[in-house]
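Hi R.,

Here's the input for the zinc ion complex you asked about:
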Amino acid sequence: MKRKAKTNTKPTRKRRLGAYWSFVLIVSGIIVLFLLLSLIKSFGDWYVDHIFPLLHGVVARVWNVFPFAFGEIVMYAGAVLVAVTIVWSLVMGILAVIRAARKKERKKRRVYRIYMKSILVVALLFLWCYLFHWWLPYSGHVCGRDTKRQEITSEDFRVALVEIGKRIGWAQQNVVRDENGLIVYLSDEEAFKVIIRSMQKLSEQYPRLKGYYGRPKVALCSDVLDWMGIGGYTYPYTMEITYNKYVDKFYWYALQAHETAHYKGFYKENEGSFIGFLACLTSDDPLMVYSGCYDAYWDVLNDYYDALQNEYGKDADAKYAEYWLAGIGFDMELAVSDEMHAEKVAQEVYENDDHPLEEYSDTVEEVGDAGWETQDAVIAENDYDDVVRMIAEYYKEKKAEAR
Ligand SMILES: [Zn+2]
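And here is the predicted structure with zinc ion in place:
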């Protein structure tokens, strides 16, 4: 038996979402879904190993077409857009309050509505890119490995220092120098090829480092970055490495190796520094080894001294002297003079350029300092300093494997 179908004589009009709001809703839904998935660290690891390289291969290639740092311009445009939106919204708010919106203003309101709807799409696009280009890779484990942090002693730091010192010693003997004993540096373009070569070699251990590498780009406002103490950054929206052209050539490899690690999805500061260090350490280029190992050496040395003080108290200095007396593996005086000379050259490059905003440099520096402090607080245990622990763990594991 079947009921007789009811015939509806009065068809009801259903309200339907327009194409615009359906789009907004779907995109927002996907963003929320993946934000929730990012709470699972192993999902982040899987994402950065399998999906991110495909996305990176496309996005990085597209923006690499531009010879200038496109992301930097996007940042300035973004700041203008935010300012315009705030000012316009305030004006519209005031107009509404004083009820001045008559016929003429109604037209203005329509323009404002269209503007705000466009801004919403732009904001969603930014959120989308933020999520898939940066946040999901960032949400994984450090270096994609779910391992426990080990207990590190002063002896572990000492072992690391000895090994790093040996590599610096090797680099000092093999680096190319001119007749005055000064290091001969490559062009930035040639130097970056050296970095890519080292990264590709390291990709046997970290497959994320395989695939495409675009060119790093000089920041348009290098002086502003300089005042803020920023050597370079990797802009995740356009996947471009952008660097401050006043960074000295000696430090350049250490900096670019760090940024290149970010570029390939190692976004946390500790993992960026660690992958950068490994790329420098295992490089076949003496200058890259020299740069990366010397940079890491000082960080490890500082932590070594702190650890000695914790463990030995008043006997710490004697222990520290023992380390120095046993020979550090390289010529410290030469290393310092190489560093100083590179800094002097970089300073000359800076002085030869015009800096129209220089009178604001102190203010910019203060903003920069506040930015660094905020970043330290936000990234917490994955900050720059944590690389020292990772380096010590690396040598500890190597020692254990050799046994
Ligand atoms: Zn970084």
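One thing worth noting: Residues 19-139 form one domain.

Cheers,
M.
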